[in-house]
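Aggregate trends can hide what the representation actually does to any particular protein. For completeness, the protein is quoted in full, as a sequence line and a line of structure tokens.
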Amino acid sequence: MDACTLGDLLDVVGGTSVHLHTAPAGLTAPVTQVLLYDAHAPLPPAPGALLLAVGVRAAAAGPLARAAAEAGMTGLVVRGPDGPTAEAQTYGVALLSVAEDIAWHQAHLLLASAIGARPVPSTGGHGDLFALADAIAAATGGATAVEDPRRRILAYSTVPGQPVDEDRRQGILGLQVPADVENTEQYRELFAAAGPLRLPALRDGVLPRLAVAVRAGGETLGSVWVVDDGTLAADAEETLAQGASTAALLLLRARAAQELARHQSSDLLRRVLDGTADAAASAVRLGAEGPVRVAAFVLDAAGLPDAGQTGLRLLDVVRLQCEARYGRQACVLLDGVVYALLPAPGVRHKRLAQDIVARAGQALRVPVRAGLGEVVAGLGEVAGSRADADLVLRVLGPSLPVATVDEVRPRVTLLRLAEVLREKRELTAGSWRRVLSYDAEHGTDHARTLVCWFDAGCDVAEAARLLAVHPNTCRYRLKQVRRHLGIDLDDPDERLVLWLQLRVLAGLGPGPADA
């Protein structure tokens, strides 16, 4: 893959995301990849690489600038504005910075995607998390497991002959640590500790543990657990601390790779929704060959102060629920609306949307609405399904937070019809304006009377029931319309156009004015 230049990189992510402090070799210096600094491993030769100073304060990164130069790297990336500019100039490497509130995995994803490269393989010599678990187990003498912050087991050792207990067996079988009060307290202590922590057995038949939290900067990425039967190596704690550092690199890289894939999938879905992507190629890349449907989710709260951040959290909820149901799933946030591409046929699409609305509303403490477009034959027709879903969102409310387009077809049709009518002056002209003006001037209710009469098939008794008035009152109002407004209510075309304009343009429905 051809490398981009430092200037190319800054054209994509420069400004608010990444700030350039110095570039002694100029903006034409090549940028080939993004590496994460590991304090426990020597820097590999990496011509053109950018080195992220994970775990190193910006003001103390001077020696890292020299090490990056010796490794042939193009630049050093620190977090915060007070980086070693003078040292970077002396050693001839570019110095860049990201904001202090940006997590390292986010910075890695941002830069890796900008240069068109996926996160590079680990240079720590372990290869992946399972190999790392085996290496830690061999060095410490205890069976090892690597977990994420939600206590899901990501990898475990398979070194023969090491003692294990029932908790480990059950955890590996379900890839999830069993939940109980004692476990929760141990995790709380572990994530509060600065280094490896020895934890006692929780009950009879369970062995103690030696564990350490895995962190990158101030972010907790997971934990590493070693079964302690009393025969661990003397330097087990030091080994575990070093293993946690390598685990952080592997977890950051894995997360960056996953998020980069999601970023690319979201970008492709954005073009599919707009109708600008190649349908056949997109179907293969998104894994969406065959019938599909667009579901749209939006926050039902006007003027929300942190709407942008809450929208991102809604995206996370939608993506998590869709991936739990369908596996790899394409979701994207566009203009405050979260769109998900659902494989069809799927009779449970509405049920999934209802579950997401309930979960998101509870998690975000904001009501959420969901609209489902029509099922279409393939990605080439997705723009139409998206338009359906957008229209459904516009007719939903507190009493109907979730619906498919077929369930609200009359409302959606009237909504679109109103938009079409308002675009043409000749379609908005007519006697309906005279009716509304007369009502406003004289305090009458002729417009709603006409709508109810039309809806009742010109049956005065039924119209009176809809209006909650006496039939004679209804007859009198219709007579007044004929006499004072000169409207020919015997003309079926006049009735049709007048009903349509009052219902669609004036927004009047059947029933009394206070209904």
